[in-house]
Design a protein that fits this description.
It is a single-pass type I membrane protein. By secondary structure, the protein is an alpha+beta fold. The chain is built from 28 helices and 41 strands. A hairpin with a 3-residue loop joins strand 20 and strand 21. It is globular and about 95 Å long.
Length: about 1050
């Protein structure tokens, strides 16, 4: 029968094509249009042919019929977004609380152990050094501090070799392993081992637990071996980590003054720059800063930020680091001018209410001061001394050390001398001890949570072994204080304890099936930065996955950029509960296609954390959910089919609680749960019930596909290779019509092709696109390759299955096929052409068929720019402007400014986002890009037109292919009409405005800036330094007056 149908089709086609050519010959070169009627008939015939193939091999009509049979037995519910987000927030609150309680137990154990310990300067203690464990000397003996330490690969820890019975200790390379302070700290902190193990027993979902000591060592559980880099160095210092800094200190506003007078030339300026860089390392997202260089004049390191402070996020700190290299020494140092400016900035910024509204400090980096400048301090800072003064003497000479120490001591700060680059790190850290004193004296164990970051406590090459790539996580941390009475006024911080929470663990609490095809959940921090969001892209690929420099400070407004007034962002930052709606433009298929829809956003806060949670539901089918009902016996029977699979990243059953379940696949877990063979398994009963329903309803399609595959007269040329199905519960079925070795695209529907499978963030691309098509029609596309050539040899066709025939009906499933491109094109046409170009394009303007095969997959506007411009003018297509604030752009290494500019991407470039190799040495830098996407207007089915060129008229016809997202375009090729798409030029100097912009943020709920019992006389010193009596007396008097 199919053979007769094809013969009839080609017979009709030949008649129309002959008539078309005859008519066309008469109009070439004139202003008349190409015959629309002929094109329309051909499009109709091709549309019927290709839909017949897609429907037949996908089994779409059978599946639609099966769901219809159950229509009377199902109930449809409208999703209550507000209740859903509150329920999710409560679930996350409970999960976060368990983590913080584990940390609290570590704090209590650490403080008790230290209270019972007496410092012994001669203590000898052999501990497990994380670098030296299991290392032997040439004679085969274990190295000192490197005893045998049993390591076993553990799947819960990324299959890394670990010891789940013991922790071990990492000491920074620049510190002495046997320093008495370190040995004593390691000794008393051994008591944490028991608590580490107990915590892990109570909550098997815990991963790394650790204690970062104020002395610099890092105790980590489970124990793991650390490997130095190629230079034999481990640069990791726990005191530089954000979780340590946030837990140890309160938010702060900081002005850094750098002496660039002539005496600072050479090594001194190098040390000064490194000191500034180390100070920047200790600043976090709740801090604000600026850097001013001074000689006889003031020089803001970033002139754009004259007279203000900027948030200390990673992007801003890196920006300032780049500008440090432009400093050079000359002239005379006028410190009085710099101090006046610093105090004025801090005062003015404090009055704006934008900063930390907590601690304030001035960091002075110089090789000397000729005066104590007490008149300036008396004017701005005494007697309250609200601004602390930290002074860093650069160089070996101590001629002006007295003055610098006096300034620090008189202003509740700290003085230190830095003689070499090796001294920088430890000396900079001293100021953290001072700022932590009020919190320690208050004995306030504030729980802090970090923004999302990528774990790097073990070497990156080991983390890359994870099939998910580098692990994005947040850390919960608490400070550990000395409780010994004699140290109370000194406010001694012992360190910080913490544990990591992978972001993917948060995603497990989110029922993706309740959010619909385009729905998603997301969370942000008190600063508006993303904790989790499907549009967050922390990595980029340049041979291997690398972290973007500013990946941890991507603002919600940079992914939900349609909210120009930050209504959604600000409400969430302010911990409100509510709803917000807006039209959004969601990019798919590697950013080259766009779906325009209206989203309803529901949001609330997660109590006990600085985070807020949001849920986005798309209007229409995305707001509805249905429940089916079948018996467990029926469902289990149909789950046994070999072609059934479930979404790996969805949480049908919790397999993390008990170690024996860790390796269990979700499908296997469901079967064991339903049969009662694993009573300890915890499963989502509602989701499991709906999986059973979908398994039963979709089961007949397996026999249908099998019958097609066994009928050798069908698909004899093996043009259709794969049929596939997916349901709203993450259930998938796949059928191969050819052998696996004959597949043209072997990655399709595998873990390597993440866009086309169910994952924690989204439904498959073919499912999402089909859901936005008119019911009953197919969406066709050529998958975009990640390769530069961007060529693909397959065409994917898919269609959505709806329960009811209206917009409120949930989309219950999607089915489709993948066929060879050559097969698809052969179904188009092969007859000779006369004076025309014929194209088949999709609803986003990409070419599926062209006379020149090399044009396949390209954007139509690249080939026929004049015609595309005309289609835009006539309204057949519309241009949508998109923004990417997480892009990576190539820039010359010598010129980094362009990396931060808003770039306009031409239509030629945006259709191939893979950077092209160039002769100049370039690097990838973060950038903001604006680029266009194109969408057809659904109401316009056909259009004809003429374009006036230099000496001729170019005529064209565009006709929609019925029941598809495709258009046939016939263009007169005898008239040469060169034209590129118009695109706007944009100002590339928006960097300054971005730096100045201060978005609404919520400060941490606690502040410990000062304490009346604080011992401000602990203010540093230098070997051999003897302060003048008058200089010592004044700060003591001030200390009395200030209490």
């Amino acid at each position: 029968m199919i053979l007769n149908l094809l013969r009839a089709f080609w017979g009709v086609f030949f008649i129309f094509w002959t008539a078309f050519n005859t008519a066309l010959v008469d109009v070439v070169g004139s202003e008349q249009q190409i015959p629309l009627s002929v094109v329309k008939l051909w499009a109709s015939a091709f549309g019927g042919e290709i839909k017949s193939i897609a429907a037949k091999y996908s089994g779409s009509q059978l599946l639609q019929k099966k769901y219809k049979e159950y229509e009377k037995d199902v109930s449809i519910e409208e999703i209550d977004g507000l209740q859903l987000v509150k329920k999710l927030a409560k679930s996350m609150e409970e999960m976060f609380h368990k983590k913080s309680e584990a940390v609290r137990r570590l704090v209590e154990a650490a403080e008790d152990a230290h209270l019972k310990h007496e410092f012994d300067a001669d203590l000898q203690y052999e501990y497990f050094n994380a670098v030296l464990i299991n290392e032997r000397d040439e004679e085969g003996n274990f190295l000192e501090l490197g005893k045998e330490f049993i390591l076993v690969p553990n799947d819960h820890f990324n299959n890394l070799p670990v010891n789940v019975s013991l922790s071990d200790v990492q000491v920074p390379t620049n510190m002495y392993n046997k320093d008495p302070a370190i040995v004593n700290g390691v000794f008393w902190s051994e008591s944490l081992n028991k608590v580490f193990v107990d915590n892990f027993d109570r909550d098997p979902s815990l991963i790394w637990q650790y204690f970062g000591s104020a002395k610099g060592f890092f105790r980590q559980y489970p124990g793991i071996k650390w490997e130095p880099d190629e230079n034999g160095v481990i640069a990791f210092d726990c005191r530089n980590r954000k979780w340590y800094i946030q837990a140890a200190t309160s938010p702060k506003d900081v002005v850094i003054l750098v002496d660039v007078s002539g005496s600072m030339k050479g090594l001194r300026l190098t040390i000064a720059k490194q000191t500034v860089s180390s100070i920047l390392d200790t600043l976090g997202d709740d801090d604000f800063f600026n850097i001013i260089a001074y000689n006889e004049e003031l020089h803001y390191v970033e002139p754009c930020l004259n007279g203000t402070l900027v948030q200390a996020d990673r992007a801003n700190k890196e920006h300032f680091r780049e500008h440090l290299n432009k400093l050079f020494a000359k002239g005379i140092g006028m410190l009085d001018i710099a101090l006046n400016e610093a105090f004025n900035i801090l005062s003015d910024f404090n009055h704006t209410g934008q900063g930390s509204i907590c601690s304030q400090a001035i960091m002075l980096i110089t090789d000397g001061a000729v005066d104590t400048y007490d008149t300036i301090f008396a004017k701005y800072n005494w007697p309250d001394r609200k601004v602390r003064m930290f002074t860093y003497l650069i160089g070996r000479e101590a001629a002006f050390a007295d003055n610098l120490k006096w300034m620090a001591c008189a202003n509740k700060g700290f003085f230190t001398q830095i003689s070499t680059l090796a001294d920088v790190q430890e000396n900079v850290m001293e100021y953290l001890h001072v700022l932590s004193r009020p919190k320690v004296i208050d004995q306030e164990h504030d729980v802090v949570w970090t923004e999302a970051y990528i774990d790097s406590t073990v070497s990156l090459h080991e983390k890359l072994a994870d099939d998910q790539g580098l692990v994005l996580m947040t850390t919960v941390a608490m400070p550990v204080f000395s409780k010994q009475n004699e140290t109370r006024s000194k406010g001694i911080l012992l360190g910080v304890v913490g544990t990591d929470v992978p972001v993917k663990e948060l995603l497990k609490a989110i029922p993706k099936y309740k959010l619909g095809i385009h729905g998603y959940a997301f969370a942000i921090t008190n600063n508006g930065y993303i904790l989790t969001h499907p549009e967050l892209r922390p990595l980029y690929e340049e041979g291997k996955k690398r972290r973007k420099p500013n990946y941890s400070s991507v603002d919600l407004s940079e992914v939900e950029w349609e909210d120009r007034d930050d209504v959604l962002r600000n409400a969430m930052v302010n911990r409100k509960t509510g709803k917000f709606s807006m039209e959004v433009k969601k990019t798919v298929d590697k950013g080259k296609r766009v779906l325009v829809m209206t989203n309803d956003y529901y949001y609330t806060d997660i109590r006990g954390t600085p985070f807020s949670l949001g849920v986005a539901l798309s209007r229409g089918h995305g707001k509805y959910f249905f429940r089916g009902n079948v018996t467990i016996e029926e469902g289990l029977h149909d789950l046994e089919h070999p072609d059934v699979s479930l979404a790996d990243e969805w949480s049908y059953c919790n397999t993390d609680v008990h170690p024996e379940h860790h390796q269990m696949a979700q499908l296997e877990a469901i079967k064991l749960y339903l049969t009662g063979k694993e009573p300890l398994l915890q499963c989502d009963k509602e989701l499991v019930q709906e999986v059973l329903f979908d398994a039963v309803v979709s089961a007949p399609i397996e026999a249908y596909w099998t019958s097609l595959a066994l009928n050798k007269s069908e698909n004899s040329d093996k043009g259709v290779e794969v049929a596939f199905l997916g349901t709203r519960t993450g259930l998938s079925r796949i059928n191969l019509f050819v052998g696996p070795e004959q597949l043209t695209n072997r990655d399709f529907l595998t873990a390597e092709d993440k866009e086309n499978i169910f994952n924690a963030d989204h439904f498959p691309l073919w499912y999402r696109r089909a859901a936005e098509q008119i019911p009953g029609s197919f969406v066709y596309s050529i998958p975009f390759s990640t390769e530069t050539a961007n060529k693909s040899n397959v065409v994917t066709a898919s269609t959505a299955i709806q329960l009811l025939d209206d917009r409120k009906s949930p989309v219950v499933a999607a089915v489709g096929i993948q066929m060879k491109l050559e097969f698809f094109q052969r179904k188009f046409w092969t007859a000779s052409r006369q004076a025309i170009n014929c194209y088949l394009i999709d609803n986003n303007g990409f070419i599926l068929v062209a006379e020149d095969y090399r044009q396949t997959g390209n954007f139509f506007g690249e080939i026929e720019g004049a015609v595309m411009n005309k289609l835009l003018t006539m309204g057949s297509f519309k241009r949508i402007t998109l923004y990417d604030y997480q892009a990576m752009c190539r820039t010359n290494k010598e010129s980094s400014d362009s990396a931060h500019s808003l770039l306009d991407v031409s239509i030629v470039n945006i259709m191939n986002l893979t950077p092209k190799a160039q002769r100049l040495k370039q690097t990838l830098e973060p950038c903001d890009t604006e680029y266009p996407a194109f969408v057809s207007e659904r109401t316009i089915k056909e259009t004809t037109g003429n374009i006036a060129c230099d000496d001729c008229f170019k005529s064209f016809v565009i006709q929609q292919i019925p029941s598809s997202n495709l258009f046939m375009v016939v263009v007169d090729n005898e008239c040469n009409c060169e034209s590129l798409l118009n695109y706007c030029e944009h100002n590339e100097s928006l960097k300054c405005e971005r730096l100045k912009s201060q978005k609404i943020r919520r400060r941490p709920e606690t502040c410990h800036g000062f304490h009346p019992e604080e011992n401000a006389r602990e203010c540093g010193g230098v070997l051999g330094l003897s302060a003048k009596p008058t200089l010592v007396l004044l700060p003591l008097l001030l200390a009395v007056f200030s209490r």
